[in-house]
Design goal:
The complex is a heterodimer of chains A (109) and B (324). With 109 residues, chain A is mostly helical. Chain A contains four helices and no strands. Chain B is mainly α. Chain B has 13 helices and no strands. In chain B, helix 8 (148-169) packs parallel to helix 13 and helix 10 crosses helix 11 (242-248). The chains are: A mainly alpha (109), B mainly alpha (324).
Chain lengths: 109, 324
């Protein structure tokens, strides 16, 4: 049973680490702010769920798991909100998505 | 394993520090300083200094970033072009770095049980805390009781810093005399941050109180709790506008909170004298010396928390008022 839980948490942690890595690469490689945010959100959402899930399996039924659930709930509430705030702030400041910018340039020609 | 993590975090810290020096965009520099604080907090945590890590994360990465940003709102985003003598400053920095590196050769090895810090008073604190104070967190016992004078000094430093900043910045134009459209109404028209923020603020306050009153059992205490509670109220001010934040906690109340902490701390100390002990000797506060110690620590931690909250909020509002 413990081996099974260890394997499961190992799989979750590895997948979580992988998605954080993908998010990081995406945030560096994507062309404009909005697509970069899209890539970085992989880190906050699925990365956090997988890593914290893996750690929860290691902690078992204890106070630590309840704290981890609280951390997860906090992250799931705040990271989409901050993404939303960042995107709307960028839009207000006049940063336009790349696609739209290209279309506008096309129209001007 | 821990050494590898530590070296990794410290390497990232050096990279961040170089990036802070190299950038001329102040906004980027503020964000990088937050990252640097978080990295050093992680490093403190690796070294089992959970209390210091919590302080660094709450104050360094949290509140200072907010205060830097509100200061940045008053100035331009770009650093002004430097005309100073680069060779001279490089020489000074290099000389200081060489001296510091030379000094590290005399330092004890990492985790050395024979290091002076482990053999001086630390064993006495570890041994006597259960007997004299009977709380699990020795850091709180040292900070609150054994080294109570130092913490009293720190509270006065925070208090003086708050007064100094308020004198420098002034309180700005009073809110009441401004036309309505000139007052920053926060993010009222942005539904999502506002709704989520409203849900979160009570929980942040609750967490702050937990950190405040759980400091005798786990990492925490007045300094951290004050920063967390101030963060919750600053979030409220950002979401609902400064006017509503100030109607909850007016400036006069904030000034009172600032002064309340040192007063309470000092009063606990004087109470020790009145009841027949020494200044800041909590043992006489109750018939049972151990209970008296616990009561004294609880009171002075409350004083610390109130002062830190008041000072941080006062500085925040002073920066915000300066922008009008």
């Amino acid at each position: 049973m413990t081996t099974l839980i260890d394997i499961l948490s190992w799989v979750l942690l590895t997948l979580g680490g992988l998605s954080v890595l993908i998010g990081g690469i995406g945030a560096l490689r994507m062309p404009d702010l909005y697509t970069r945010m899209h890539a970085a959100s992989v880190t906050d959402s699925i990365g956090a769920i997988l890593v914290l899930g893996g750690v929860m399996l290691q902690a078992g039924f204890s106070l630590a798991t309840i704290k981890l659930i609280a951390v997860l709930l906090f992250l799931l509430l705040t990271s989409p909100t901050s993404s939303n705030a960042l995107a709307s702030a960028a839009l207000l400041a006049g940063t336009r998505p790349l696609e739209e910018q290209a279309q506008d340039d096309e129209a001007q020609k | 394993m821990i050494v590898i993590f530590g070296v990794f975090l410290l390497t990232l810290l050096v990279i961040t520090a170089i990036a802070i020096v190299r950038t001329d965009n102040l906004f980027v520099a503020v964000m990088l300083m937050g990252i640097a604080s978080l990295l050093i907090a992680g490093n403190f945590f690796l070294l089992d200094a959970a209390d210091v890590a919590l302080t660094e994360a709450a104050v360094g990465a949290g509140i200072s970033t907010v205060l830097f940003l509100s200061a940045l709102a008053l100035t331009s985003e770009r650093e002004r072009a430097k005309s100073s003598n680069k060779v001279l400053s490089l020489t000074v920095v290099a000389a200081a770095a060489l001296i510091l590196i030379y000094a590290t050769f005399d330092k004890p090895r990492f985790g050395d049980p024979q290091a002076p810090v482990q053999t001086h008073v630390a064993p006495w604190y570890l041994e006597k805390t259960p007997e004299y104070i009977d709380i699990p967190n020795v850091v709180t016992a040292v900070l609150g009781s054994f080294r109570g004078y130092d913490t009293l000094g720190e509270v006065f430093v925070v208090f003086t810093a708050g007064i100094g900043v308020l004198f420098l910045l002034g309180s700005g134009v009073p809110l009441g005399s401004l036309p309505r459209e000139k007052i920053n109404e926060g993010l009222r028209h942005h539904l999502i941050p506002r709704v989520v923020g409203r849900v979160l603020i009570p929980f942040i306050l609750l967490f702050g109180l937990y950190v405040q009153f759980h400091g005798e059992y786990g990492p925490g205490g007045g300094f951290q709790a004050g920063a967390i509670i101030a963060a919750a109220i600053i979030l409220f001010a950002l979401l609902e506008g400064e006017r509503r934040a100030l109607s909850v906690l007016p400036e006069r109340v904030l000034l009172g909170l600032m002064a309340f902490g040192p007063l309470l701390y000092g009063a606990v100390g004087v109470a020790g004298i009145v009841l027949g002990g020494n200044f800041l000797d909590y043992s006489v506060l109750s018939s049972d010396p151990v209970k008296g110690q616990q009561l004294g620590i609880l009171l002075i931690e409350a004083g610390v928390g109130v002062t830190v909250t008041g000072v941080l909020l006062g500085i925040f509002h002073a920066f915000a008022a300066r922008g009008r």
